[in-house]
Amino acid sequence: MRLIPFALLLLTGAIQAAEAPAPVAPTPTAAMHEAAALYKQHCQSCHGAQRFGAAGPALLPESLGRIKPAEVRAVIRDGRPASQMTGYSELLDASQIDALVDYLYQPAATAPVWKTPDIRASHKILADLASLPSTPQHDADPLNLFVVVEAGDHHVTILDGDTFDPLTRFASHFALHGGPKFSPDGRFVYFASRDGWISLYDLHNLRMIAEVRVGLNTRNLAVSNDGRWVLVGNYLPGNLVVLDARDLSLVKIIPTLGQDGSASRVSAVYTAPPRDSFVVALKDVQEVWELSYAGEPDFQPRRIVAKDYLDDFSFTPDYRYLLATSRKAGGGQVIDLDGGEPVASIELPGMPHLGSGIYWKRNGHWVFATPNISTGLISVIDLQTWKLITEIPTAGPGFFMRSHANSPYAWTDVFFGPNNDQVLLIDKQTLKVAHTLRPMPGKNAAHVEFTHDGRYALLSVWDRDGALIVYDSQTLEEVKRIPMNKPSGKYNVGNKIEFAEGTSH
Ligand code: DHE
Q1: Which fold has domain 358-505?
Q2: Which of 167, 262, 334, 412 has the smallest set of CB atoms within 10 Å of its CB?
Q3: Helix ranges restricted to H, 9-68
């Protein structure tokens, strides 16, 4: 059976808040029974038995609200670029695809709600933190550990960043996605799965501490700079969930309603350490929210009216401005967090994958660079003038970009198309491709993270028979190859807690 993850998420429109009345499921007809069977056979493994979403997004009328059935039909038939949704035209005939589309627009047999009692009931404390030692119970440098997400079989490996030996490996929730986030001291790591599970893991004791399911379709999470709060952004239900970072207990649910009362999904949430605040991108209303966590926070949003919907943003190095992108508009906007308004437009040829942009200094000026997932161009923007400096052509659209203050190169991938085994090293000063690596010819290479000192770069080969490959970041010699099943992202504790230049935030 082939998988359908992620794809229809790119199509989804506004959804209702959890509290909205649930549509009533109609009496099933024979055609609907057949469509339900097709769903079970082809879609359920990724989109969930009740269509509440899992690795793939929820497929419910509430989440397909603004999408035309013709578009959904085309996605099932042809797949969706920039996602892992493959086409089903060889497995399903036209009438079966039509039946499936009709089925997806029918209300689910069980209404998609996830409220306070559901969250509280899912909360599990798995270890008594107070009884655990507060110093590392292993010999590795705690600031040079790597957390490696192995998407192929839903595991996480904790890797010693000096020896590149695993300290431990454990099963994760299904389909972890996005960057795990860390407590400011680097002791705890927080994971989010696409189906709403948040997990808290102790890197000193190598133990899972707690977990909770905060929604049905989650985007990502952020941790406050004082280590007290976790903020999670959800697609379904469209809301923000504040958790106590010490044990993941529920603190507050904030429905994401625009100024006019309309409901929105959350695109992404990030922490802005110098501002003591979380910043939130909203997908269905043209607003950015800033939630202060200074002192005794009440998490009331400060609303900034944007020029467009936001799919994502990156911060400037001083955290004053957001470089925000929208899938609908194609370009980007600069939003001044101090002034509370959009101040410029930025030229981007398409939509970057979220959180993929990085910045560095070139000729004394900060520049920002990002690949994008629809075309093979890296955009480089001047952070003083907001002007495009150049577009660097690549052999296909890319997902990720990474560097380190001690590396002369920005490493980026060619994620899509026939050249997806390439990794390009862009000279940060000349802005030219200086080297092209093909770590395992024919296999998709992507996502790099550096050791804390920047001396080594760890690269993923996203294949069932893939690997984590360690390169000397100066000589580009391969130092070690660790076989792994689709290692997706890897995260260096020191780089992440320092919000180091060149890594994702
Ligand atoms: Fe991601 C980061 C959203 C598809 C792998 N991705 C993120 C983040 C968001 C996001 C909001 C930032 C999390 C953070 O750091 O807090 N991703 C989206 C999408 O909207 C998109 C395009 C469609 C979707 O289905 O959600 C998408 N992403 C994918 C994939 O298909 C990838 C390649 C495979 C997968 O595992 O889902 C993928 N996303 C990743 C990874 C990161 C990520 C590995 C972390 C990057 C980092 O270095 O921080």
Answers
A1: Methylamine Dehydrogenase; Chain H (2.130.10)
A2: 262
A3: 30-38, 44-47
Q: How confident is the model at residue 83 (pLDDT cuts 50, 70, 90)?
A: low
Count of other CB atoms within 10 angstroms of residue 300 = 10
* Residue of minimum CA distance from atom 47 in ligand 1: 179
Nearest CA to ligand 1 atom 30: 83
- Report the nearest atom of ligand 1 relative to the CA of 488: 44
Looking at every residue in the chain, the average pLDDT score rounds to 90
Tens digits of residue pLDDT in 361-382: 999 999 999 998 888 999 999 9
Confidence of residue 64 (pLDDT cuts 50, 70, 90): confident
Share of the chain above pLDDT 90, in %: 75
Question: Counting atoms of ligand 1 from 1, which one is nearest the CA of 6?
Answer: 25
177 close to ligand 1 (CB < 6 Angstrom): yes
Check whether 13 has a pLDDT greater than 50.
Answer: no
Give the ligand 1 atom nearest the CA of 82. Answer: 22
217 lines ligand 1 (CB under 6 A): no
Average pLDDT estimate for 440-467: 97
53 in contact with ligand 1, CB cutoff 6 A: no
283 CB near ligand 1 (under 6 Å): no
Atom of ligand 1 nearest to the CA of 491: 48
In sequence order, what are the beta bridge partners of 390? 380
The label of the residue with tokens 């905060």 reads: 214
What is the layout of strands, in order, in the sheet containing 487-492? 166-171, 155-160, 145-150, 487-492
Model confidence at 39, pLDDT cuts 50, 70, 90, reads very high
Domain residues of the chain, as ranges? 4-104, 358-505
3-state secondary structure of 387: coil
Count of Cβ atoms closer than 10 Å to residue 488 Cβ: 20
| pLDDT value of position 315 | 95
Task: Tell me the CA distances in angstroms from 285 to 301, 462, 466, one per residue in order.
Answer: 14, 35, 40
Torsion of CA 386, 392, 396, 399, to 10 degrees: -40
| Per-residue confidence (pLDDT) for residue 26, from 0 to 100 | 57
Residue 62 is predicted with a pLDDT of 67
Residue ID of nearest Cα to ligand 1 atom 25 = 6
- Residue-wise burial string across 344-371, b where 16 or more C-beta atoms lie within 10 A, e elsewhere: eebebbbbbbbbbbbbbebeeebbbbbb
Question: For the domain with range 4-104, which CATH number is right: 2.40.10.10, 1.10.760.10, 3.40.1190.20, 1.10.260.40?
Answer: 1.10.760.10
235 lines ligand 1 (CB under 6 A): no
CA of 64 to the centre of ligand 1 (A): 20
Average pLDDT over residues 268-289: 96
